[in-house]
Amino acid sequence: MVEISTSILSVQKGEExxxxxxLEVAKTDYFHIDVMDGKFVKKNTYxxxxxxxxxxxxxxxxxxxxxxxxxxxxxxxxxxxxxEPNIITFHIEACKNNQEVYNTIKYIKQNNCKVGLAIKPNxxxxxxxxxxxxxxxxLVMTVEPGKGGxxxxxxxIDKIKKLKKHVQENKIELDIEADGGINLVTAxxxxxxxxxILVSGTAILKANKFKTIIDELKES
Length: 220
Known about the structure:
8-stranded parallel β-barrel, 8 helices, 8 strands
């Protein structure tokens, strides 16, 4: 069975407390924190996500799955380490070269946090292979990062399959997270391709009952 990381990107102001509590009761496995700086992607959610993550840390023991869509990765890591996330994921495209990727992986680990590496739709999956033995999770963006509610790009299914094949052939222990356009129709496809953590926001938050949709996403 896969795990569900619920994106809280579209949680409305004033509804945070009830929504976070209901998501915990519904047994989401993670709270997915979409951190955007208005530079790496157009939208800016930085302060809102920091506020939400800090609040969740106070009221819940569920792990925080922090996804940094930012240019200044180091500063964002330092900011979000304060909410003691389970994992911090940064984008390979935000780094100038391979050495910067390795340095960032090392820095996150030194701060007792798991490391994820994310890849945008237009980046070839092979570019991430050399880093896989050193990280805990690879996040495959199945839409262009920057906004919620998009439709999953079908080409990304093959990308996940290729990644899964490489991981198995090289006996690498790694979670594969799919993020973007995940709903009851697309969830079975990304699971079959090899993803074991699914990020879903719109599909869950618009549902009448969070538990029903989360259970169905896990089992579909």
